[in-house]
Write a structure and sequence with these properties.
Strand content: 15-25%
Number of helices: 11
Helix content: 25-40%
Number of strands: 17
Distance between the termini: 32 Å
Order of helices and strands: HHHHEEEEEEEEEEHHEHHEEEEEEHHH
CATH topology of the largest domain: Naphthalene 1,2-dioxygenase Alpha Subunit, Chain A, domain 1
Shape: globular
CATH superfamily of the largest domain: Naphthalene 1,2-dioxygenase Alpha Subunit, Chain A, domain 1
Length: about 400
């Protein structure tokens, strides 16, 4: 049994540590208190304050673009299914039968005209309506219209599908992200990118360790020698974005105007240095994106305990890039690109799990931030706003 005081630290004390770190100005800021990543009490608290209330990215809209297309996910232990209805509208439901709550759809993705529970054969259409309930005519007064799948709030931003477990979310996603869309990412037309890769991974770390790692590029020259470091972006060129309670980002241009990381010649949307601009951003709490002129890589992460996280990631490409790939080369081209992302994930996995294992120590130095790690301080402020209010 662990005797680590961070694991059993009372919630009130954890919140005091978080508030103290968030109240420091950035030039005096220190890394997130270790207890936030190890406290069992805080794990439950962040589930209640964050994951059951916020907008959580589940998939890309083009992954559920045809009638019957579906993807399943899990948010704060709630099984979720996102499905495209006959009218083209994308909706979300709790992935549990309205009879006795058996998991309705066990597959991660697919297409179906209807969903039938394996337990007692209750069947639902893509709008969540109960259309079949064997032998329930034996129950006096039973009305199928009163027993449908539990609907969830859903919103779409820049081609990404988000779901909220809250009955009345406190924000309108497109409203709070409008400044970011208008000034930075809108020029890329992410909704037009086509999603061709989707994978899931489980790492032995806290979910916030992955957020920390993804939202800073200080580690790239040291840790990503086989992948991202080959773009040779000087650290001096990185710019951290404005402070926000809804998102954080940093950006830097590629040195070369052609080749990987640069816009295709037929890309007429991007101008000037944006034709070779990389943007790493986080839509709080847990949606991570590397956006490039020639692809985007997204990750959506969920806690699976204090010391384990489950992350689903995907890659999408703009149409002008895909038009250059001959049909008979597409499979091998995708396999090669996936191999590149797999290597990048392997490079990051070592770091993220090391971050978690090192912070287990009950005795640690104070720590500090590099100037281009401002996004981590911004994320700490988001956590404080949601968890300490």
């Amino acid at each position: 049994m662990s005797n680590n005081p961070n694991t059993s630290m009372p919630l009130k004390q954890v919140l005091e540590c978080l508030k103290g770190a968030a109240n420091l100005p950035f030039d005096q800021a220190v890394p997130v208190p270790a207890a936030l990543n190890h406290s069992r009490a805080f794990l439950q608290h962040e589930s209640e304050k964050i994951f059951t209330q916020e907008w959580i990215c589940v998939c890309r809209e083009d992954e559920v673009s045809k009638s019957g297309d579906f993807i399943t996910h899990e948010i704060a232990e709630v099984p979720v299914i996102v499905v495209c209805q006959k009218n083209g509208k994308v909706s979300a439901f709790v992935n549990a039968c309205a009879h006795r709550f058996a998991c309705l759809v066990p597959r991660e993705k697919g297409s179906a005209k209807k969903f039938t529970c394996r337990y007692h054969g209750w069947t639902y259409d893509n709008a969540g309506q109960l259309i079949g309930a064997p032998n329930m005519e034996m129950k006096s007064g039973f009305d199928k219209s009163q027993h449908r799948l539990r609907p969830l709030q859903l919103d779409i931003w820049e081609g990404f599908v988000y779901v909220s477990l809250a009955e009345k979310p406190s924000t309108r996603l497109n409203d709070v992200l409008a400044p970011f869309q208008e000034s930075v990412v809108g020029r890329y037309d992410m909704a037009g990118y086509q999603t061709l890769i989707r994978e899931t991974m489980v790492w032995n770390a806290n979910w916030k360790n992955l957020i920390e790692n993804f939202t800073e590029s200080y580690h790239v020259p040291v840790a990503h020698g086989k992948t991202f470091a080959q773009h040779n972006k000087p650290l001096e060129d990185y710019i951290c974005g404005e402070d926000s309670h809804y998102y954080g980002y940093h950006r830097a241009p590629q040195p070369l105007e052609t080749g990987p990381g640069a816009a295709h010649p037929n890309n007429h949307r991007l101008k000037g240095e944006w034709r070779r601009m990389m943007i790493d951003f986080c839509i709080y709490p847990c949606h991570l994106v590397t956006l490039m002129p020639d692809y985007l890589w997204y990750i959506t992460v969920q806690p699976a305990g204090t010391d384990q996280m489950r992350a689903t990631w995907g890659v999408a490409f703009p149409p002008e890039v895909l038009e250059d790939i001959a049909p008979d080369r597409l499979e091998s081209w995708l396999e090669e690109f996936k191999g590149y992302i797999d290597v990048a994930n392997d490079e990051d996995k070592i770091l993220v799990e090391a971050l978690h294992s090192g912070s287990r120590s009950p005795i640690l130095p104070t720590g500090t931030y590099h100037p281009i790690e401002r996004n981590l301080w911004q994320f700490n402020n988001y956590l404080a706003k949601k968890c300490c209010g």
